Every structure is written in C-alpha cells, then in structure tokens.
C-alpha cells in the first residue's frame, strides 16, 4: 500500500516536472531572433528597376530575370513602379530613386518632358547612370547610358511584313496610335510604314487617340464608319487593343479583319489565343532584365565604358494566330 | 547537530530558494521582453522623429527664404544638425531586411540637407529662381521622407511580425508555465512538508511508544529512534535511563536472592544449634556421669562396656562443640568410628563396617557432623530393618581436584523419587537420629559451605543399595 502510494506520488511529480520543464523550455527558448543587424553599410551596388506597369506578365518576367542577375552578381536590386500606367506615381518613384542616390536606375522609358527632365538634369547631377529598358527614350533627350530592349523599328517592320503575307499587297490598313506619340511608338510606326511603302495598293490610315477606354471605342467606331472598306488594324500600343477589338466585335464579324498588336501583354496573348487577332510581336523580357542589370553593373564596375549608346537589342519575333493554334 | 530547528529552516530555505529562482527568472524574462518592446518602439519613435525634423527643416528653410536673418539661419543649421544626428541613430537599425530601404532613407536625408544648403546658397546669391526650385524640391524630399518613414515602419512591422507573434505565443506559454509551476511547487512543497513533519513526529511517536512500554514495566525493550535530532538525543537518554533502571532492578533482585539464601542458611544453622542444644540436656552432667559409669564398668571388669561408654562420651563431646566450625576430615572419621563402635555394641554381628581411607586426604576441612548423620541413615535404613544385618562401606579417595567420600550400603535402596524427595525436602521430622540432624540438613549445609550444589550425590537402586557420594573440593578454605 505504502509502496503504491510512493509510486503514484513519484509518478505525479515526474509528470508535473516534465510538463513544467517542457513549458519552461518553450518560454525561454522561444527565438526572439530579430533580423540580423548588418553593421556596415552595404557596399553592394544598389540598383532599382522602375516600371509603369508593375505586375504585368511582361514586367514580371523582366523583374524576375533582373533580380536573378542581380543576385548572381551580388548587387541589390529593387523593383519599384506604378500600377496601370500611373505616370505621376512612376515619375515620383524615379525622383525618390534619384534622391535616394541609388547606384543605378533601370527604367522603362517614358517619352515625356518630366521624365526627360528627371533623367537629364536630376540623375545626371547626382551622377546616377540610367539604362532604359523595353521602351527607349533617345539618348539626346534622356542622357541614358544605354537601352536594352526590342528594336521597335524592326518590330514595326516585321508586323508590316506579316500583314503583307496575310493580306496580300492591296488593302486599307488602319494604324492605331496613342496620341502621345512616344518614341518607341514612332519607331514602330516608321517600321510599319517602311514595310508597306513599296506597295502602292495599300492605303495607310493613321489614327491618333487617347488611350482611355471610351476614347478608343469611340475612335474605332469613327474609323469603321469612315472607312467601310478597311481590311486591317495595327495597334501600335497594346493598351488600345482590347477596347478596339471589343468595338470591332460589336460591329461585325471580327474574322473579316486582320488585326495585329505590337506588344505581347496579357490581353494580346489571350486575344491571339481566341483567334480574334492575327499576330503579335513577342519580345524577350527575360533577356531585357538580365542584360540591363549586367550592363549597368559593368558600367558601375568600369568594365565596359562607354556602353553602346544605341542600345542592346533583344530578340523579337512575330507570333501568328496560326502558330498558336 | 541536526536539530528540528535546522530541519524547519532547511525546508523554508528550500521553498524560498525555489520562489526566488522563479521570481528571478520571470523578472528576467519580463525585463527581456520589455527591453525588446522598448527597442522596437524606440525605432518607430526615432523614425517618426526624422519625419518631423525634416518638416521642421522645410519650415525653417521657408522662414529663412522669406526673411534671411542670422537667427533663422542658425535655426536652420540647428535643425540640419539635429536631423543628421537622428540619421546616425537610424543607421543603427540596419538589418538584412531593411538594408536597401534604410540606405535610401539615409540618402534621402542627405539629399534634403544638401538641397537645403543649395537653397540657402542660392538665396544668399539672390538667385530667386534657383532657391525657389530648391525649396520646392526640399519640400518634396521632405514628403518623400515621411512616405519612406511609413514604408520603413511598415517594413519593420512585417519584419517583426513573427517576433510579435512569438511574443504573444510565449506569453501564452508563460501563463501555462505559471500554472504548471504552481502545481509542481504546491505538490513538491506538500510532499516536503509531509516528509518533514513525519521526520519530526515519527521519533516523537516512537518515543511515546517507548515511554508507554516503560510505564507498563517492560524494561527489556531497546528504545530505538531513527532520527538524528533532539528527539534522538532524548531517546538515547531515555534508553540509558531504561538500562539503568533495568540494572538496578536486576541488582535488587540479586540482592533479594542473596538475602534469602543468607536467611535460609541462618535458619538451618539455628535449627542445627537448636537440635544440638535439645540433645544437650545437661551435657556435662551426662558426660561426667558417662565417665563415672565407664570407670565403674572398668573397675567391675566389664571392659567392653567401659569402652562403649568412652565412645559415647567422645561422641557427645564432639557434638557439644560449636557446629559452625569446620573440622578436619580426620576428626570426622574419628567420630564416625566412635559412632560405629557404639552401633557395633548394638547390632554385634549384623553390622559390617568397612573402612577404606586414603590417609593423605584426612586434613581436608569439611563441616562438622556431616558424615555421622549419613552413616547413621545407612544404619537406620540398611541395617536395622534386616535381621541378617547389612554392610556399610566408607571410602575416602583422593581425586584430582576433589576428595571423594563414599558411604555405601547394601540395604533395600530407594526409588528415584525418594532420592529427589530427600535432596529437596526440608522436613524436620526425621526420627531416630542420634544427633537429630537429617540428611537434608547435611545437604544444605554442604552446599552453603562450598557454595556449589554438586557436592552431594545419591546413587540408589531398589534391592541393591544406596551410595552417597561427597565431592569435597580441595581448594576450599572454608
């Protein structure tokens, strides 16, 4: 009896002791590890990639590739930017980057005065090198060190040639362009025009418009009304495309028209998959990201001075609807 | 010494120690948590300070631009220094997560200071355009700084999210620990208290039990208390007392026994003396008369009767002497011979007495009147009843450490019960003895005289005879 009581008591005390110890170790071992403090100022190059269109498939690819490259070269890179072409925000980000005195800025070119002023005066006064990516702004306007991206003139030309191949050498072509006429858009347009200029039977209608959705739809309606015989649409700027296609669809059968986009954003690809448009230009965002980081680091490390001012062109290709199917 | 006081003290100290340990660790833990909280809070406060200081710079700059006085410039410089100092403090917050943002932040502050300086310079140079644009830039940077502050704080919150959660978790754990600790301590202290109480009370109980036993008169149980405190001391003393009492008791018992024996021997002596006195009715008269009779018989030519009377007179004389004195064996044997002479006159041919004495032993001391009563007994029981008479053998032999005296007869013998009866009976009604002294008296006197019990032996068989053996120790001085 006595033995039983002792065994019970010791069992209880062992159990209690065990739980107390377990609980105690949980309390006192809980890791309050704060993020490791880094005493020294990081000597790595601080880069920033700024875009107007954060979290679009194209820019995600660019950003990821750039990040990877930065990691490989042990530089720190951050991706900033605005959502949905918010220019004000975009410019503000550039300004902050400049005031923050980052070591290098990789930026989506924006062919506006504010952008130019920032890059030309501010960035230069802080001695920050700028590389434009995807969309270029001429060197003379922006004092950029280089450009990494597609050859927009070539892209236009390829679209034009594709149109010729699809439609033949006669017809009416409407080129839809953003009123702001950015540099890359101009280049694309020139490419298209150069491709088509040898064929006198092809008539080109250049239509300028705001890229607001209602504006696009209204303009498209006008074009269809005024040019009933139109055969093809080329959207220089992918922002226009969706609204334009919708409007055309609402009017008549879309298969009648040859429709092309110069971008490979999400909407273009999905429309292409649906067979609603006939071709797009596919760019190489990964290459842009990788290359731009590589170049700017080379510049910063004085390995390759000066950079090619005309830019480094990345691959482009035409994706036809038939290819997709 | 391991006292009860010490035991209690140890218990209290143990409990106190546990409490202090727990209190210390909990306080330490709390302090640690507090410090962490404070540290984090301080980061937020300092970052917030940066924001307000940047705004102050802009305000001071504005004041200066409007009114470029010395005091305003001083104020502005003061603010600039202030924000640079704060920047130093902020730079200590650098960690892996916020490295990039923090560098940007610091550079922003630098830019602000720089632009401010530019603006002041432009104002001094009266370049209105420049200083205004620099001012607007400064105010923009100030705005960016506040935004960046928010971003940083946001980042901090994200970084410390896990930390906060772990703090919340561990405070939950702490509560659990408190409960477990409370249970454990309660349990352990209860056990300890029980154990201590038992250690203190058990010896007391044992002692109480022992005292009870003593009070019942059982002095032979050892008092054992398995502890090492005052109670044990008490128990030891108690045990000593018990042993002493026990010793006294046995001593008293022994004394009583001794006294009893003494009394007995005295009584026996008195009895013998009484008997001898009884038989001494005017012994001198008798003695003188016997002498006269002996002479008369001799004169009348009855020599035999004369000799007999001499023997009787000698025997009487011997008997008249003090019984307490011991005598040499030689004297005893002489008396025995006289007695036998007398008995010969009575039984003539019926009594055959054989004497074998080792002469070397005759000077040994034995009590008076020991042999004669034994031989008398033999005569009474072995010779008297038989018409043909009987033989009595008296032998004295020298053994190694004692003298062996044998008195043997060929009478009817006795049963064993009878022998026992004789040896242990203290009857006084033995009739027909010359001196009136019975065997029993002899036995007791012998054993008292030599203080041992195996001096006297009787070997007897019915129909064959009885043999009385006395083993007289040689070294006895009595």
Automatic annotation (TrEMBL), chain A:
Periplasmic binding protein domain location is: 49-303
Query: Where does it mainly reside?
Result: other
User: Which family would the database say this protein is a member of?
Assistant: Belongs to the bacterial solute-binding protein 2 family.
Name the chain's protein.
Answer: Ribose transport system substrate-binding protein
This chain's source organism reads Peribacillus huizhouensis
Q: Where does the secretion signal sit in this chain?
A: none
Transmembrane feature ranges: none
What lineage, starting at the top, does this entry show? Bacteria, Bacillati, Bacillota, Bacilli, Bacillales
Q: Which residues form a coiled coil?
A: none
Provide an example Pfam family for this protein: Peripla_BP_4
Give compartment(s): Cell envelope
Superkingdom is Bacteria
Automatic annotation (TrEMBL), chain B:
The protein's matches in Pfam families, at most eight in alphabetical order, are given as: HAMP, HATPase_c, His_kinase
Catalyzed reactions per annotation: ATP + protein L-histidine = ADP + protein N-phospho-L-histidine
- UniProt organism field: Peribacillus huizhouensis
As given in the record, the signal peptide range reads: none
Q: What GO terms are given for molecular function?
A: kinase activity
Transcription regulation among keywords: no
Q: Which domain of life is it from?
A: Bacteria
The name on file for this protein is: histidine kinase
Cited Gene3D superfamilies: 6.10.340.10, Histidine kinase-like ATPase, C-terminal domain
Keyword Kinase among record annotations: yes
PROSITE patterns, per the entry: HAMP, HIS_KIN
Q: Where are the transmembrane segments?
A: 9-29, 177-197
**Enzyme Commission code:** 2.7.13.3
Q: Where is the Histidine kinase domain?
A: 257-476
Q: Where is the HAMP domain?
A: 198-250
């Amino acid at each position: 009896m006595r033995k039983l009581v002792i065994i019970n008591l010791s069992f209880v005390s062992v159990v209690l002791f065990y739980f107390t110890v377990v609980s105690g170790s949980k309390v006192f071992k809980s890791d309050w590890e704060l993020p490791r403090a880094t005493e020294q100022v990081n000597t790595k190059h601080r880069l920033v990639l700024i875009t107007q269109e954060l979290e679009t498939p194209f820019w995600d690819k660019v950003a990821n590739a750039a990040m990877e490259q930065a990691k490989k070269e042990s530089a720190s890179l951050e991706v900033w930017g605005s959502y949905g072409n918010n220019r004000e925000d975009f410019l503000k980000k550039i300004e902050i980057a400049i005031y923050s005195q980052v070591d290098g800025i990789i930026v989506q070119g924006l062919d506006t005065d504010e952008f130019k002023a920032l890059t030309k005066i501010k960035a230069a006064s802080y001695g920050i090198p700028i590389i434009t990516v995807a969309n270029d702004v001429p060197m003379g306007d922006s004092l950029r060190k280089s450009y990494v991206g597609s050859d927009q003139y070539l892209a236009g030309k390829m679209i034009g040639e594709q149109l010729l191949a699809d439609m033949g050498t006669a017809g009416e072509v409407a080129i839809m362009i953003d009123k702001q006429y950015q540099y890359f858009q101009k280049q694309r347009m020139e490419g298209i025009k150069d491709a088509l200029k040898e064929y006198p039977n092809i008539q080109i209608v250049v239509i300028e418009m705001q890229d607001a959705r209602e504006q696009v739809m209204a303009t498209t309606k006008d074009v269809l009304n005024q040019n009933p015989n139109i055969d093809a649409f080329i959207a220089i700027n992918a922002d226009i495309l969706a609204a334009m296609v919708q409007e055309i669809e609402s009017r008549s059968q879309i298969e009648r028209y040859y429709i092309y986009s110069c971008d490979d954003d999400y909407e273009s690809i999905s429309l292409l998959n649906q067979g609603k448009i006939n071709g797009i230009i596919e760019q190489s965002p990964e290459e842009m990201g990788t290359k731009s980081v590589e170049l700017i680091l080379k510049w910063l490390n004085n390995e390759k001075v000066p950079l090619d001012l005309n830019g480094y062109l990345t691959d482009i290709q035409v994706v036809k609807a038939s290819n997709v199917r | 010494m391991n006292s009860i006081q010490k035991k209690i003290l140890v218990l209290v100290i143990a409990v106190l120690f546990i409490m202090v340990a727990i209190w210390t660790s909990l306080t330490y833990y709390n302090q640690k948590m507090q410090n962490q909280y404070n540290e984090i809070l301080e980061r937020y406060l300092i970052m917030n300070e940066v924001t307000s200081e940047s705004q102050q710079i802009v305000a001071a700059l504005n004041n200066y631009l409007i009114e470029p006085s010395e005091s305003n410039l001083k104020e502005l410089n003061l603010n600039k220094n202030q924000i640079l100092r704060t920047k130093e403090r902020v730079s200590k917050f650098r960690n892996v997560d916020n490295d990039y943002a923090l560098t940007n932040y610091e550079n922003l502050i630098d830019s602000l200071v720089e632009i401010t300086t530019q603006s002041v310079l432009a104002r001094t140079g009266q370049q209105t355009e420049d200083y205004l644009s620099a001012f607007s830039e400064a105010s923009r940077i100030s705005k960016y700084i506040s935004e960046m502050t928010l971003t940083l704080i946001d980042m901090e919150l994200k970084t410390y999210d896990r930390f906060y959660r772990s703090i919340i978790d561990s405070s939950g754990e702490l509560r659990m620990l408190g409960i477990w600790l409370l249970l454990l301590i309660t349990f352990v202290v209860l056990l300890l208290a029980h154990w201590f109480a038992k250690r203190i009370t058990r010896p007391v109980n044992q002692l109480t039990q022992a005292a009870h036993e003593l009070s019942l008169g059982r002095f032979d149980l050892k008092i054992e208390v398995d502890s090492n405190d005052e109670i044990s001391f008490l128990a030891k003393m108690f045990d000593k007392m018990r042993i002493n009492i026990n010793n006294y008791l046995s001593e008293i018992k022994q004394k009583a026994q001794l006294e009893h024996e003494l009394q007995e021997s005295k009584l026996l002596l008195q009895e013998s003396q009484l008997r001898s006195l009884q038989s001494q009715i005017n012994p001198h008269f008798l003695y003188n008369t016997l002498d006269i009779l002996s002479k008369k018989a001799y004169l009348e030519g009855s020599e035999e009767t004369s000799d007999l009377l001499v023997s009787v007179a000698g025997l009487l004389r011997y008997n008249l002497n003090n019984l307490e004195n011991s005598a040499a064996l030689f004297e005893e044997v002489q008396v025995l011979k006289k007695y036998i002479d007398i008995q010969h006159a009575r039984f003539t041919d019926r009594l055959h007495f054989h004497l074998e004495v080792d002469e070397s032993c005759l000077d040994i001391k034995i009590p008076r009147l020991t042999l004669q009563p034994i031989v008398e007994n033999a005569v009474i029981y072995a010779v008297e009843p038989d018409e043909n008479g009987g033989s009595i053998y008296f032998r004295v032999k020298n053994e190694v450490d004692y003298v062996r005296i044998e008195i043997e007869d060929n009478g009817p013998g006795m049963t064993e019960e009878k022998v026992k009866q004789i040896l242990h009976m203290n009857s006084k009604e033995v009739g027909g003895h010359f001196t009136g002294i019975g065997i029993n008296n002899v036995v007791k006197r012998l054993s008292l005289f030599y203080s041992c019990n195996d001096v006297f032996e009787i070997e007897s068989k019915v129909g064959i005879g009885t043999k009385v053996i006395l083993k007289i120790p040689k070294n006895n001085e009595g």
